[in-house]
Design a protein that fits this description.
This protein has 12 helices and 11 strands. With 336 residues, the chain is an alpha/beta fold.
C-alpha cells in the first residue's frame, strides 16, 4: 500500500518541528509541510480547508465545531501561554493592577481568538473584572479575521469596537487611544497579512507602556497553583473527509506528535541560547513551578483545561452550548 500523502500546515514550534522536518516519521504517512504564521494558518483553513492536517486556534475550533465544521482535533497542543501576562498598559490610564481594567479600553488582535478568550475568562474568574465592564477593541478587519470565516458577531451586551484600518494595537496604545493592549504576544513582531501590529508599530514613547504584571513568573506560579494547568493556545485538526476515509490516521498522527515532543524535550537543555546567561536557571525554575512537562498532550492530562476553555467559550457567548471533549477530539484519542 502506498503511503498516504498529506498537506500539513503549522507555525514553527520546537515540539512539532521533528515531525515537520521528517526527523520523526509517521507510519504509512508522508507529510508535506507548509510553515505559516498562526493567524494566516487558521484563516486559510477556516476559510478554504486547504490542508488535510492543520494547526488550529482552540477558540476558533470550538466555534467552528459548534457550527458543524467538518474537522476533528487531536489532543496535541503545541503552544501554551499565560496570556494575561502579555497585557501592557499606558501609564496615563490609571491602571496599577488587573482589577483596574473595569471601564478601560482593551485591545486584542481578534475578539474570538484563543488569547482573547482566555483573557476574558481569567480577568472575570480570577480578578473579578466582568467582560461586560471592558470596552473591547479588535485589530483585524472583518474580512481578514477568523471570525469572518465563522460568521462572528459581537455577543449581546459587549462593548465592541474596531481599530481604524490605518492603526494597530501598538500605535493605538502609544497614542493613548487604548488603555491596555495585548502587545507582548510572541507573534506580534512577526509579519503576516492579518495582524497590523507587526507592520504599524507606532512612533510613540514605549517607556510609557508598562506590563500589567511586572513579575510574570510570580503571576504564572499563582495561576498554575490555582488552576493546575497552563492555558492552551492551539491544537491540530484533521479535515473531516480525510478522517472518515482513513480512520486509523488520527491515532498514527497523535503518536507522531507525542514522539516529536519527546524528541524535542530531550534536546531542550542544549537549545537554550548561550546568550541567555541564566537560561538553565530559568529552565530549572520553570520545572520547579510546573514540573518536567509544561506541555502535556492527551485528554487525561488536559481534561480540566479543556473543560475550562469550553465553558469560557459558552459563557462568553461564542458557542451556543458547552462543547464536550468527546465531540471535539478523534475517538481513537479519547483514552490518551
Amino acid at each position: 500500500m502506498a503511503e498516504l500523502t498529506l498537506g500539513f500546515i503549522s507555525a514553527f514550534n520546537e515540539r512539532v518541528e521533528p515531525l515537520m522536518n521528517g526527523t520523526i516519521k509517521v507510519d504509512g504517512v508522508s507529510l508535506i509541510p507548509t510553515y505559516s504564521h498562526p493567524a494566516e494558518t487558521f484563516w486559510r483553513q477556516l476559510k478554504f480547508g486547504e490542508f488535510e492536517v492543520a494547526e488550529m486556534s482552540m477558540s476558533s475550533f470550538l466555534i467552528a465545531r459548534s457550527q458543524g465544521a467538518d474537522m476533528i482535533a487531536l489532543p496535541a497542543f503545541p503552544s501554551r501561554r499565560l496570556f494575561q501576562t502579555e497585557l501592557s498598559y499606558h501609564v496615563d490610564s490609571g491602571i496599577t493592577k488587573p482589577e483596574d481594567l473595569a471601564g478601560k479600553r482593551l485591545g486584542v488582535a481578534e475578539y474570538q481568538q484563543t488569547a482573547a478568550l482566555w483573557l476574558r475568562g481569567i480577568l472575570e474568574h480570577d480578578f473579578g473584572v466582568s467582560q461586560y465592564k471592558i470596552h473591547w477593541y479588535m485589530e483585524r478587519s472583518e474580512e481578514m479575521s477568523h471570525g469572518g470565516a465563522t460568521g462572528f458577531k459581537p455577543p449581546p451586551g459587549i462593548s465592541f469596537n474596531r481599530i481604524a484600518g490605518n492603526k494597530s494595537l501598538a500605535s493605538t496604545i502609544l497614542d493613548n487611544e487604548l488603555d491596555v493592549a495585548h502587545v507582548s504576544s510572541p507573534w506580534v513582531l512577526q509579519a503576516n497579512t492579518l495582524d497590523r501590529s507587526s507592520r504599524i508599530t507606532g512612533k510613540g514613547d514605549w517607556s510609557q507602556i508598562k506590563p500589567l504584571f511586572a513579575d510574570r513568573m510570580a503571576e504564572g506560579a499563582r495561576f498554575y497553583q490555582q488552576h493546575g494547568f497552563l492555558p492552551v493556545n492551539h491544537a491540530y485538526i484533521i479535515r473531516g473527509d480525510i478522517h472518515r476515509k482513513h480512520p486509523w490516521l488520527a491515532g498514527k498522527l497523535y503518536d507522531g506528535f507525542v514522539r516529536a515532543k519527546a524528541f524535542a524535550q530531550e534536546k531542550l537543555a542544549e537549545q537554550i541560547p548561550t546568550a541567555l546567561i541564566f537560561g538553565q536557571e530559568y529552565l530549572a525554575t520553570t520545572r520547579a513551578l510546573i514540573g518536567d512537562d509544561p506541555f502535556p498532550f492527551g485528554i487525561k492530562a488536559n481534561r480540566a483545561m479543556l473543560d475550562t476553555i469550553a465553558s469560557y467559550s459558552y459563557e462568553q457567548g461564542l458557542t451556543p452550548r458547552n462543547m464536550k471533549v468527546e465531540e471535539l477530539f478523534a475517538e481513537s484519542t479519547l483514552d490518551t
